[in-house]
Amino acid sequence: MKNLLILFLFCVYINVYSQQNDMDPLPRPKNCETKNICPRNTIFHETDFRIDNLGLNWNSINWDHTLVCRSRYLISSRLGIDYYSFSKIRSAGVPLELNLMIGGGALMFETGLGLNYLYVYKNYNDIIGRYDDNVSCLAMTGRLGLRYEKQHSIFFRAGYTPVYNLIGSEDIPIISNKKFLSMFGAAIGWTF
User: Fold this and answer.
1) I want to staple 93 with a disulfide (CB 3.0 to 4.6 A). Which of 54, 58, 118, 133 is the partner?
2) Backbone torsions φ then ψ of 180, nearest 5 degrees
3) Is residue 38 part of a domain?
4) Binning pLDDT at 50, 70 and 90, where does residue 105 land?
5) What's the CATH number where 98 sits?
6) pLDDT category, 20, cuts 50, 70, 90?
């Protein structure tokens, strides 16, 4: 939690500094497409984690693409690959998400909704003492947080990222009794 607070304060400092030094025009012009100032694509690494005894982490490599750019809001889509998820469990997955960013500068409030398909290929079951392999899980994901993003610059994102398991979680022992997972996420990447 302390790291998220430090990241948030850093993003606020960068946003204030860039506004004072006229590095980031505020607000974006109404026709952002012709001015070529809208962030279009971002490649980033994200980690979503729980602060409890589950040892639950989602790590992913992602591509975010701006779909709509207006003076006070942006809409983007995210596509990624989960490459490691839980302790004692090995998995791969595909997160899909639609995000709305509100704000006229580089630091924006972000909200989003998406799906995450997770394929568990090594699933250690403590109850029976062996691996149960080849389990699939589908979850709905949310996002509520802050995002720092400018054209040709470093990208930061931090916030609350809850997960609601829709299908298959009962076959994964570490989350079998939890439909709703309260998680936090942080990401760093590059916007171009």
Assistant:
1) 118
2) -110, 125
3) no
4) confident
5) 2.40.160
6) very low
Q: Sign of the CA dihedral 66, 68, 73, 78? A: negative
Strand ranges (E), 15-152: 41-49, 57-69, 73-84, 89-102, 107-125, 130-131, 135-148
The answer as to whether 37 is a domain residue is no
> Angle 39-109-34 (CA atoms, 0-180°, nearest 5)?
25
| Cα distances (Å, whole numbers) of residue 41 to 64, 75, 86 | 6, 12, 29
In a domain, 153, yes or no: yes
* Amino acid 81: pLDDT: 95
Give the tens place of pLDDT for each residue, 152-182.
889 999 999 999 989 887 777 667 778 888 8
Domain count of the chain?
A: 1
Domain with 146, as residue range(s), is 2-28+43-191
Report d(CA 127, CA 37) in Å as an integer. Answer: 55
